[in-house]
Structure formats: structure tokens, C-alpha cells
Amino acid sequence: MISIITGDIINSKESSPQNWLEALKSILNHFGETPSQWEIYRGDSFQLEVAPGEALHACILIKATIKQFKNIDVRLAIGLGKKSFTSKNITESNGEAFINSGECFENLKKTTLAIKSPFTEFDTTINIMLELAQLTINHWTSTSATLIKTTLEHPNYNQNELAELLDKTQGNISQGLKRAGLDELNKLLNYYKTQIQNLC
């Protein structure tokens, strides 16, 4: 079982690619190598393969990375399933995970993050949770997004260490994380990971 994330930048024409492209590549590089595990195509679309348990964490990190830049956002579809054909380019590989990711992506209308897997009951529950999470996530300011990105990249840092890294006060960090919904986000990520471990 693998997971394929299909994504594209919303309002990419509103922001110069030199602003967000390197930041996106840097995050994708965290999870593997191009073009076998990730690839950017058509200028503002991309695919990434990660372990199923890492998929939601990867999506939140990508979301936080892109929302650091004003006027743009990102649509993300997670497809879980098997891989039946491996090419040297991920965009040419195939299988259930790729089909699920593609179908999920095509169905993203009012939402910017969803999952399609072989487990219907799991999909129903987690997608409701993701829709609720997006009431906060989709409205992150660039400051909130930077804060969440930094926290996810340094999970062992305490608030004082984050404050030093971002040149802010500990009070600012504490308030910022509360506004950005970090505690709730961590609960969601833990729930997702536990469910995936049980299913896979």
C-alpha cells in the first residue's frame, strides 16, 4: 500500500513562481527524489509518493509552505492503494493509488484537501474531519502558515526555541499556534496515523 498526493497551486498566476516554486521543491525533497518520487508538471501541478502514514503530514506541510505566500493556496488529493506499475517518472507510474488520487483530485470542488482509499468508512469519517480542519487551515495568514511549517519541521522544539528561530517572543509563538489551531491539527494527524496503521 502506498499513497499518492496530487496537487496544484490555486491562483498560481497571482504570484510569481520564483516566490513559491523553490519552497515547494524544498518540501517535496524532504519526502524523496525527483522524478521517481515526486514531479512538478504543467508549471503548477505536482505528484508525490509517500508512505500512507505520512500522507496527511506531508499535505499539511505543503499547505503551510504555500500559504506563506500571499494570494495563493494549494489543492491536495491523497490516494491510497496499491502500485501496479513503476516508471522512472512518477507521473508515468500507475495503480490503484494513482487512480484514487486522480479521481479524488477531480472531485475537489469546494474543498482543497481530501482522501480516497479502498476503505469507504474511513474516507467518510476522515473527509468530514478534513473539511472541519479547513475552516481554520484555509484561512491561515502567511504568519500562521510560517509558524505551522516551522513547528512541523522541528517537532522537538519547544516554544522558546521556536521563538528564537523565528525571532519572536514566546508569547507571540503561543498565541500564534493557538490561532493556527496547532493542538487540534496534532490530534487530527495522530488520529489519521493510528487509523492508517490499523487499516494497512
Q: What is the ordering of alpha helices and beta strands?
A: EHEEHEHEHHHHH
| DSSP E strands, number | 5
Strand content: 15-25%
- Overall shape: it is globular
Helix content: 40-55%
Q: Helix count?
A: 8
The low-pLDDT segments are: none
What about the largest sheet? Answer: 5 strands, mixed
Radius of gyration: 16 Å
Question: Cα distance, first to last residue?
Answer: 7 Å
Mean of pLDDT: 95
Class by alpha and beta content = alpha+beta
Oligomeric form = single chain
Q: How would you explain this protein's 3D organization?
A:
- This protein has 200 residues and is of the alpha+beta class.
- The chain contains eight helices and five strands.
- The protein has helices at 17-31, 55-66, 96-106, 120-137, 142-153, 159-166, 170-180, 182-199, and strands at residues 2-10, 38-41, 45-50, 73-81, 113-116.
- A five-stranded mixed sheet has the order 2-3-1-4-5.
- The longest helix is centred in the middle third of the chain and has 18 residues, at 120-137.
- It is globular.
